[in-house]
Amino acid sequence: MVLAAMVGTTIEWYDFFIYAICAGLVFATQFFTALGKDALILSFATIGISFFFRPIGAIVAGHLGDRLGRRAMLILTLLLMGISTVLIGLVPTTGSIGIAAPIILVVLRILQGLSAGGEWGGAALLAVEHAPADRRGLYGAFPQIGVPIGLLLANGVLALVTALTTPEQFLAWGWRIPFLLSVVLIVAGFMIRTRVAESPVFEEVRRTRARSSIPLVPLFRHHWRLVVVGALVFAANNAVGYMTTGGYVQSYAVKSLHLDRSTVLIAVMVSAVAWLVSTLAGGWLADRIGRLRVYRIGFVVQLLWMFPFFALVDTGNIALLHLALILFAVGLGFTYGPQAALYAEMYPTSVRYSGAAISYAIGAVLGGAFAPTIAEALQTSTGTVYAVGAYLAVVTVIGLVASYFVEDRPGQPLSATSDVRADDARTV
Known about the structure:
This protein is mostly helical and 428 residues long. It contains 21 helices and no strands. It is found in: Cell membrane.
């Protein structure tokens, strides 16, 4: 079960990150070259466009997940993401089919956004709802580590392709290979997820007929404050994380600091390993000192490291880039590892998928949607990456403050019969 949640999430985010990284390294010249100096900003903006469709994916998957089950949604979102990714690898460039090329690219990116919006909630709940009460933080961290593993795979495949091709070959056709390889991952993920048992908590809901016919109605009637607070907490992690997952650091290091592309991708891979370890540590620690306490430690680390991080990156020294990214990952892991357990314990069973998925999706819009675009625009307009650091510091403070407006409920029963329905029982 934990393996299925982790593997599926890994595949989803490999697909998602391949696009984000190529937006910074490839798409500006292959699809948006007519825009001249604004091509890179628009290329990053296509990353953000998909985020606006995440809430739609979350609403649809959340409704069906609360009505039909978590397992079915995991399979559907996996297929949607995988097929969209393979098709991106087949889209002709603007030089071949003109304006139709960027339009097709954006449509497929939107489909990725719909999938990403619905996938996380199902994977997180499947892991947490199967977990013993005293190990939900650790179990819930496994779908979370699918993100750094996906980042590791995406950067690794791109680094390998970059090393095996000339710069001209990479831009001409090499970048397509990672997208097309997704078909292998789709088959593997589909086989694993079709063998997973449904969440025991949802099975109880099915037996007791405690399902809501329209989960969104009770969710926003009784728990809208949780949706807002949960979104703000995640937004602070997501904006910072998208400096690497959204391709900004890779693009800045290659194009502004003139570092070798393969070397930069390897540095990001090393940081992904550090992020994986710190995410697992965050989940494990959340079972011992509480979800929100771990979050707050992570936010403080993010805040304290923000400006030293950019100072080290800006040196153009590859060893210091490694150090900057590794320490950068510590705060990210501590503000990501406890998330699945926190979100699952925030909402009653009948609206849990909808609540978790929508909080996550809105947080992604507020935090990560245009973080690379904002970062690129700030750095271009001010001439310094410290403007980017200031922007991320503000977002981090907002997340830290928001964490004080939700109740920590570790170990609380997740079954339908033990639900506390009142909104004020879950917020402070």
